[in-house]
Amino acid sequence: MTQQFERRATRLLRDHDALSPPVDVEALARTLGMSVNFEELDSDVSGLMLIEDGHVKVAINAAHHRHRQRFTLAHEIGHMLLHVTGDRVFVDRRFFRNEWSSKGELREEIEANAFAAALLMPGLLIRQHVDAKKGITDIDVFRLATLFAVSEQAMTLRLVKLNYIEPD
Ligand SMILES: [Zn+2]
């Protein structure tokens, strides 16, 4: 499942000539036909996506940090490509919450996050900027997070996933 997301994200970036850091996720979303707006939303809501009659409207929380906004938009792209079959509404909050009614919804959130990470931090590009033999320091994490325009937390999780660093 994970491998499939990695491949799909990389192919998408390559097809749209976007395979370089920082990935221009907003341009990609617009190319994919999404209308993206930055709006005032409840502080715990990262983003909303409304899909109606084939039109995809995304609202991103205007008050959030740019890195978080980028991840949210990448997450919505994941939902659109992986989960949408008809009209739907997605409401994305920062943390997994009990309100998710079914295991199916939780699975979709995990998948959208995995896709978002692969889209914003493609393994192919990370490898070009990491010297695995030297080991990765906190400074490297900071440098990579800046280069890819993601949070240090997101980059750390990604480096764990790609087996560059040990989980805590
Ligand atoms: Zn979601």
From TrEMBL:
Domain of life, source organism: Bacteria
Pfam entry (one): Peptidase_M78
Stretches assigned to the IrrE N-terminal-like domain: 31-159
Membrane-traversing stretches: none
Protein name: IrrE N-terminal-like domain-containing protein
Protein species of origin: Woeseia oceani
